[in-house]
Amino acid sequence: MAVTTIGAGLSLWRNVRVQRFVVQAVFAAALAAFGYYLFTQARELDLGFDFLNGRAGFNISNQVWTNYDSNDLRRELYIAGVVNTVRIAGVGIALATLLGLVAGVARLSGNWLLSRLALVYVETARNIPLLVQIVFWYIAVLLQLPRLADSMTAFDMAFLSVRGLALPWVQTENGFGLWLIFLTVAAVAAVAVRQWRGKREERTGQPSYPNWVALGTFVAIALVGFAIAGGPLSPDRPEIGERGFRYDGGLFISAEFTALLLALVTYTGAFIAEIVRGSIQAVPKGQTEASAALGLNPFQRLNLVILPQALRIMIPPLTSQYLNLTKNSSLAVAIAFPELVGVSRTIMNNTGQTIPMFVIVMATYLLMSLIISLVMNTLHRRTTLVEH
Amino acid sequence: MKKNWLLIAVGLIVAVLAIAAIACGDDDDGDGNGNGDGNGIETPSDGNGTGNTHEQTLSDVLARGRLNCGVNDGVPGFGFLEADGTSSGFDVDFCRALAAAIFGDSELVDYVILTAAARFEALAGGEIDVLIRNTTWTLSRDAELNASFATTTFYDGQGMMVRVADGFDSIDDMEGTTICSLQGTTTELNLADRFEAGGLSYEGLTFEDNGPLEAAFTAEACQGWTSDQSQLAARRSAYPEADGGPESLLIFPEVFSKEPLGPVTRDDDSQWFDIVNWVVIGMITADEKGITSANLADFVADPGEVETSRLLGLPIEGTVFDSTLGIDPDFMQDVIAQVGNYGELYEKHIEPLGIPREGSLNASWLDGGLIYAPPWR
User: Fold this and answer.
1) Distance CA A121, CA A115 (A)
2) Do B205 and B178 meet the contact criterion of CB atoms below 8 Å apart?
3) Which of A137, B189, B260, B318 yields a CA-CA distance of 20 to 30 A from B132?
C-alpha cells in the first residue's frame, strides 16, 4: 500500500488548496478590476472644487453662529448648512436620549397605565415614516400657530408664532473674555474639588457630596468672576418688529428647526426606548433582587445598579441610532430647514457640479459619523466590564 | 464539500462577470445626472442617435395622419389634463393649430404627457414631433440638447405673489419679510439679486415641494411667494376659497428674470422647424391684423391688405403666394378658423389665470409688448 500525500492522486482542479487559491485569486482580481474601473471613471470626471470659491448668490435662513449672505462664498454657505446639521444633531441626540430613557424605563414600569402609554408611543412613533412625521409637525402643529404680528406671548418676555419661538436671552458686553477665563478656572477647580471630595468619601466613608461641593465651587468662582468682569452680560428681550414680520432681539428658534427637532426626537426616541428596555431586561433579574435585598429603593436600584450595567449593552446600538438621527436630518429640505443637504442641492442646481458636491456631502457625513462613533466607542471602552 | 466550493467559485465568477457587464454597459450613458427639479438641464443619452428623423418629420407626420405633441398635464392655463381625459390650455392649443395647418383638422393630435425630466429625451428620440410644454429657451438647451426653439409664445419671468391684506404695492415695500420659494435652478439667485438691488433684507424659506410651501404661505409664515409668474397664476387661480380665494392674492406685474417659453423641435429638420415657427408667427400676424376666428370670413371675402392675402393664401391678381413650407398655402385659414389667433388664445387661457395681457411683456409690439411677427412675404 503506497502512502500518498493528501490530494496527490487527485487532478489539480479537485485539490482543495488549489480551489481555494483560485477562488481567492479570482475574487481579488475582480475586486482589483472593479477598483480600477472606478478609478478610471473618477479620473474622467472633472472633479474641480473651484466652484466652491465662487459667489454664492443665494441666502439661507436659520443661521445662528454664522451670518453669511449671497455675497459670501459658496463654501461659506455650505459651512452654514453644516452648522445647522450639527446643531440639529447635537440637540436632537441629547433630547432623544432623554426621551428614550424615560420611555424605555416607563415601558418596564409596574404601573399599567404608564407602561401602556409608553408602548403606544413607541409603536406609533417608530412605525410612521419620519418624513411624514416631519411634515406633520410642521404643517399640522406649528403652522397652526398665529401669525407673527399676533404672537402668543408670556409676560411680553417670550413669543410664539407661526415663524417660531423667541425667548429672552443675554447679550455679551465688554469683559466677557475675562469672565470666560474665570469660567475656565471655575471648571478646573470644580473637577479638582470633585475628585478630592470623592477620594475623601472613599477614604473616610463619610458622605462628602462631591458633586454638590463641586457645583458650589463652580458657581462661587463664576459669580465672583462675573462681578470682577463688571457684569459682562445684559438681558436681551425679544420684541415683535415694527412691521410685524420678524422678532427683534432675544433668542429665535424657528418653526422649521422646531418641527424637525420634534420629529427627529420622537422618532429616534422610540427606537432608543426599545434599546433601553432591551438592555435593562438583559441585566440578570438577580441584580434587581439583590439590590432590593440591600434595602435600596426602586429609584436607587435603577440608578445605581441596573442602569450602569445596562449602559454597557446599550451603547453599541445607541451609536447607530445617533448616526441615524444625524443622517435623517437631511429630510429637513421638505420643510425648508437649510441643513447641509439642502444647501448643497441649491449649490448643485446653481452650478451643475453634481458629482463634486456629492463627494463633499458624503465626506462631511462620513466625518460626522466617524466622530460620533469615536466618542461612543470611547464611552463604550470605559463602561466595558473589566474582569480582574 | 468540494462540490460546494466549486459551486461558490462558479457563482462568484458569474456574479463578477455580471457586475462587469453592467459596469461596462454604463459607459455609453454619459453621466445622466438629471436632478429632476423641473428646471434642470437634462442630457439626452445621444443627441443624434436616431438619425432617421433628418428632414422627414413632415412626411412622417403626414404618413401617420396624426401629430404627436409633447405637453404638460399639471399647469392650468398652459397644459392641463382635464377630468374627462382631454388636454387643454395655451400650449395645447398651439398643438391644435399645428395640426390644423398640416391636416386641416385641429383634432388630429395625440398628446404625449411629459415630465420636465423626460421632455428633451422624448423629443430627441422621435417620440414626439414637437414639444410645447412651458419650456424656457436657454443657450445650453439650444446648443447642448440639439433642440431648436421657435418663436416665443409666452414671455414668462419670476414674479412675486403676496396677500392683498398685507398691503404691499411692490417688492420695494417688502423690507424684512419672509419669502417662500421652491428649490430651482435660478429661483433663489434671482430672489437674492432682486432684494439686494432694492437694498432690502429678507428671510428665504426654500421648500422642495409645493404642498408644504402653500401651507406655510397660507399660515402666513411667509409674506411673499416667488416663482415664475405663470406658475404663480396657476397656483393663485386654484387658491382655496376657505383661505380667501384667488381675489385675496396679488401678483406684482414686475418680473425679475427672463423665461421665454415656446415650442421646441429637433434641430436636424429645418423644414419642420419652419412650419412650427411660421404657424406661431401666422397666429401673431393675425392678432396684429385683427383677424379672428369670428371675422375670418370677412377677411377671406375682402382681404384689404396684400399681406393679409398672403397670410390667408388668397390669390393676388390671380397668383397665390406660396410659402414653400410644404403645406397648403391657405393653412392659416384653417388655423384661425379652428383655433384662433394669438390674442384669442391668450384671452381664452391666460386671462382667466389673472395675468392680463395689457401692459405685460406678452402684449403686441403695437401696444408696447414683445409679441412681434416678422413680415409674411
Assistant:
1) 10
2) yes
3) B189
Contact between B178 and A245 (Cβ < 8 Å): yes
Portion 255-284 of A in contact with B at CB < 8 A: 255-256
ipTM of the predicted structure? 0.79
Mean pLDDT of B193-216: 90
* DSSP reduced 3-state for B109: strand
pLDDT confidence of residue B11? 60
**CA-CA distance, A257 to A87, in Å (whole number)?**
9
Q: Could you read off the pLDDT of A311-325 as tens digits, one per residue? A: 888 999 999 999 999
Which three-class secondary structure string do you get for B314-344?
CEECCEECCCCCCCCCCHHHHHHHHCCCHHH
A192, A200 Cβ separation under 8 angstroms: no
- Torsion (CA) A295, A299, A304, A309 in degrees, nearest 10: 110
* CB contact (8 A) between residue A349 and residue B208: no
DSSP designation for B106: T
User: Would you list the domain boundaries of chain A?
Assistant: 12-44, 74-168+237-383, 173-235
- Is A163 close to B178, i.e. CB distance below 8 A? yes
- pTM for the model: 0.73
Would the CATH topology of B32-157+261-377 be identical to that of B158-257? yes
Closest-CA distance, A136 to chain B, in angstroms, reads: 10
Topology (CATH) of A74-168+237-383: MetI-like fold (1.10.3720)
How far A60 CA lies from chain B's nearest CA (Å)?
A: 6
Residue of A nearest to B26 (CA): A41
Q: Return the exposure string of B150-177: e unless at least 16 CB atoms fall within 10 Å of the residue's CB, then b.
A: bbbbbbbbbbbbbbeebebeebebbebb
Q: How many CA atoms lie within 13 A of A20 on its CB side?
A: 3
At residue B39, the 3 state secondary structure works out as coil
Does 3.40.190.10 match the CATH number of domain B158-257? Answer: yes
Nearest chain A Cα distance for residue B360, angstroms: 28
Q: Which residue has the cell 457587464?
A: B21
A138-172 pLDDT, tens digit each:
999 999 998 888 888 888 888 999 898 988 888 87
Angstrom distance (rounded) from CA A30 to CA B19:
9
C-alpha cell at B178: 419672509
Nearest CA in chain A to B174: A245
CB-CB: which of A23, A30, A59 is closest to B192? Answer: A59
- What A241-249 contacts at long range (C-beta under 8 Å, 24+ apart), as own/partner pairs, is A241/B176, A243/B175, A243/B176, A244/A147, A244/A148, A244/A149, A245/A148, A245/A149, A245/B176, A245/B177, A245/B178, A245/B223, A246/A148, A246/A163, A246/B176, A246/B178, A246/B203, A247/A148, A247/A159, A247/A163, A247/A166, A249/A169
Note whether B362 and B158 are within 8 A (CB).
Answer: no
Model pLDDT for residues A23-34, shown as the tens digit of each residue: 999 999 999 999
Distance CA B321, CA B315 (A): 7
What is the tens place of the pLDDT at every residue in B251-287?
988 888 888 999 999 988 999 999 999 999 999 999 9
B137-147 pLDDT, tens digit each: 888 788 877 88
Distance from CA of A95 to the nearest CA of B (A): 26
**List of chain A residues whose C-beta atoms are within 8 Å of the C-beta of residue B9:** 19, 22-23, 26
Q: Domain residues of chain B, as ranges?
A: 32-157+261-377, 158-257
Restricting to A residues 292-351, those with a Cβ less than 8 Å away from any Cβ of B are 333-336, 338, 342, 345-346, 348-350
pLDDT digits (tens, 9 = 90+) for B310-331: 999 999 888 888 888 889 999 9
Distance of alpha carbon B297 from alpha carbon B337, whole angstroms: 9
**Radius of gyration of chain A, Cα coordinates, nearest whole angstrom:** 28
Chain B residues close to A144, C-beta within 8 Å: 219
Q: Do B219 and A14 touch (CB under 8 A)?
A: no
- Smallest CA–CA distance, residue B78 to chain A, in Å, is 25
